[in-house]
Amino acid sequence: MANQLAPQNYQDCIDACQNCAVACDACAQACLQEEDVKMMARCIELDRDCAKLCYTAVTFMASGSQFAHQVCELCAQVCDACAEECEQHAAHMDHCRQCAEACRRCAEACRSMVSMAA
User: Which Pfam family, giving just one, matches this sequence (predicted)?
Assistant: First the structure.
């Protein structure tokens, strides 16, 4: 069900950020289960940063904050970085592939929201 409190034009971005945050949290957890966890350290770090920022962006948009577009600009940048890292592992780790896809969708939604707010 759509959040009735959120400005309607933010809803697609809110949904993309929520989906991305969940994908990042799941990816970080799955990376911790990999045989060579040390190799996955950068991925885990970016997953966690991205998830936190996505959740933050959701709260800024849901409250109609005047700073939502700035948070979403940063969110898009972090999503891009996370996607790039996950794409390096995507061929042999499905959780990284799924995370990269969610990050790319979120970055696109955030950029669309920012351009609407401009």
Answer: Csp
CA distance 110 to 73: 7
Q: How many domains does the chain have?
A: 1
The identity of residue 113, as a single letter, is M
Would residue 2 count as lying in a domain? Answer: no
DSSP letter string over the chain? ---TTS-GGGHHHHHHHHHHHHHHHHHHHHHHTSS-GGGGHHHHHHHHHHHHHHHHHHHHHHTT-TTHHHHHHHHHHHHHHHHHHHHTTTTT-HHHHHHHHHHHHHHHHHHHHHHHH-
26-51 pLDDT per residue, tens: 999 999 999 999 999 999 999 999 99
